[in-house]
Amino acid sequence: MPDVDDTAAVNAGVTLVLRSTRVVTPQGTRPAAVAVAGGTIASVDPHDTAPPPGARVEDLGDDVLLPGLVDTHVHVNDPGRSAWEGFWTATRAAAAGGITTLLDMPLNSLPPTTTADHLRTKQAVARSKAHVDTGFWGGAIPGNLKDLRPLHDAGVFGFKCFLSPSGVEEFPALDQEHLARAMAEIAGFGGLLIVHAEDPHHLDAAPRRPGPRYADFLASRPRDAENTAIESLIGHAERLGARVHILHLSSSDALPLIAGARRRGVAVTVESCPHFLTLTAEEIPDGATEFKCCPPIRESANQDLLWQGLADGTIDCIVSDHSPCTTDLKTPDFASAWGGISSLQLGLPAVWTEARRRGHTLDDVARWMSAGPAALAGLDRKGAVEAGRDADFAVLAPDETFTVDPARLHHRNQVTAYAGRTLHGVVRSTWLRGRRIATGGEVAGPAGRLLERNN
Ligand SMILES: [Zn+2]
Question: What pTM value is reported for the model?
């Protein structure tokens, strides 16, 4: 075979070089020049490497080059409840916030993603509107056992279920018997079950006092509901050899259960969310239902333990659980107001603000908000700045601050629990497969692709 000059071969296709004194790679943050060819990272070279002839160079100075964020928990609600959010607005908010990949939850849209046909309906709606790469979770509800395999074959990343009422009647919860059956079916084809883990019996038994007081709402969603549900999920997963992922963990009490299960070899992973990690029950004003979500935001001592769970690796990822609604549904009564927090565009600065205060680095943030969720979903082209991955980046000015003005958010409804907060970390630009898709909060036209699970 003739000798091949590898450097020249790689350089041949390079059209773009991004240079920064702070590039966040899986091996740490360092000065580097990232060469991009055909939308893929071709190489990560020393900072002073001469660019190949013809390549455009973007010198980012000291701004940080992060891997594009992967948000695996977004309720886009489109079609059907697109007044709440939609693929156009959600993916623009994502792009402005440094997110380059999102996965849509199977409920709150009409239809819900519970059959392969419904998936195709959703894909058709999303196709022309996606500003970032977009994929779909399927749903497991009573009666759709036969639809799970076809949904898996059609490319969903896994299946979401509830154990307690979801908030919408077209997406009912699974009881323990249906749960075991769905988990066995999904394990049979190597799929992933992702679970809203609150036990319905503990919720029923909790004190229920409607009204504007946050303390009453918090008492109605006790930690025990989460702890019990997680314990039973781990039991099922262990018995069936199934993979299970716990969504939006709020109760830190469950961390030892999860860590213990992992030590026994149970395939259980867990996420938490920006609101659980940056907001506390103590500071929520009565009537402020923009802070309502289920499970709820708990006390600051609980939050400290969640951060410990991130630090010791028990919590795998941080994702938004962006679940918006129209403003009229955020009535001042915590019992009846829609539960869901809008944060798609703000997750990175919100988490970074708290992470830096607690002594964490942007390497940690990239692990929790990009590599972790990419690994959960099996997105092996996403989640890291390294050769062979998609050239997806978020460029961050980590020491700059801004005050959250809801009017500047691209979310369809400008309701957010973060209004008026001063956050660290300004997203300068976002890049998707080597293309700049957002600059200073302004978003370019839709360039996202629809993603399917890798086989
Ligand atoms: Zn959710």
Answer: 0.96
209 alpha carbon to ligand 1 midpoint, in Å?
24
d(CA 372, CA 90): 21
Domains of the chain with CATH codes: 67-379+399-415 (3.20.20.140)
Q: Tell me, what amino acid is at 369? A: M
Higher per-residue pLDDT: 363 or 1: 363
CA of 81 to the centre of ligand 1 (A): 15
Q: Are 72 and 373 in contact (CB under 8 A)?
A: yes
Residues surrounding ion ligand 1 at CB below 5 Å: 321
Burial letters 16-43, b for 16+ CB under 10 A, else e: bbbbbbbbbbeeebeebbbbbbebbbbb
* CA gap 6, 360 in Å, rounded: 38
Query: What would the pLDDT profile of 186-205 be if each residue is shown by its tens digit?
Result: 999 999 999 999 999 999 99
From the CA of 161, how far away is ligand 1's center (Å)?
A: 10
CA of 199 to the centre of ligand 1 (A): 16
* The CA-based dihedral angle spanning residues 96, 98, 100, 102, taken in that order and rounded to the nearest 10 degrees: -80
Q: Which of 84-88, 115-119, 345-349 has the lowest mean pLDDT?
A: 84-88
Q: Is 392 exposed, middle or buried (0-12, 13-18, 19+ CB in 10 A)?
A: buried
Write the pLDDT tens digit of every residue in 340-367: 999 999 999 999 999 999 999 999 999 9
Report d(CA 411, CA 91) in Å as an integer. 9
